[in-house]
Amino acid sequence: MKNTLLYLIIFTVYLNATTFAVVNNEKVTIEDINAIIKSHEDIPAFSALSPREKELVIDQAIEQKLIIQHARKTNIPQQKDFIDSLEVIKNQLIKEFWFKQQFQNISVTKQEVQTYYNEHQANYKQEFMLKARHIIVKSEQKAQQLIKELQSTQKDVQKLFIELAQKHSIGPSASKGGDLGWFKKGQMLDTFWNKAKHLKEKSFTLTPLQTQYGYHIIYLDAKQQDKTLTLKEIYSTIEQEVQLQKFQHLISQQIQRLKKEAHIEVQYDNF
């Protein structure tokens, strides 16, 4: 009954605001919740959790809040090690906030993006690629049997191919329906590449391909022809790259200026 009451109180607060609980007049906020989630790699976003899982995460946040409140009442905040560590953290935060501020203040013009694109077009060329899946079996007879089943089906061929790959393929991609993803020349055996590239999209090989791994039936999902990405397609990526380069240049200049203005003594005897 006590746990149920706690659960109801927590979620009444959750539904009405971003405060998930109040512990000795101190709020448990989304920042506290996110800190718990970040400490557990296996926990997804809070919104994706079940009600029971959310309750457990909030309970952990409450426990941490209680421990912190208790620790504050000790002499830890007055200990030299704590004060020194706090100063290190503060300095790191000051530096990071300053970097963030400098970066955000950098503007990038359309002309700068255009110029960068013109000078680096070679980086935006996409090679001819294929997206395919396959079924590998040990015998040619088995491969022929599966090809006949694919040829005679009244179902969606790709759907059946996936089912057959999951059921019969001995390759590592079997659980993914034989999916090999996108690949270019040189990333597969030459014989496999040559066989796949001559297929039409949404079709499969009518004769099995023999390799050292077994007998392959190949299904071609799609082809991507050679092309150069347009400026419109990658505008935001280039904009961020130009902004980063300007930021790095700015910081370098700032550091050089600060060095000139500062009085610096290097204690070589302590090396």
TrEMBL record:
SUPFAM superfamilies: FKBP-like, Triger factor/SurA peptide-binding domain-like. InterPro entries: PPIase_dom_sf, PPIase_PpiC, PPIase_PpiC_CS, PrsA_foldase, Trigger_fact/SurA_dom_sf. Keywords: Coiled coil, Isomerase, Rotamase. It comes from Candidatus Marinarcus aquaticus. Residues 127-222 form the PpiC domain. It comes from the Bacteria. The lineage of its organism: Bacteria, Pseudomonadati, Campylobacterota, Epsilonproteobacteria, Campylobacterales. This is PpiC domain-containing protein. GO terms for molecular function: peptidyl-prolyl cis-trans isomerase activity. Transmembrane segments: none annotated. Residues 136-163 form a coiled coil.
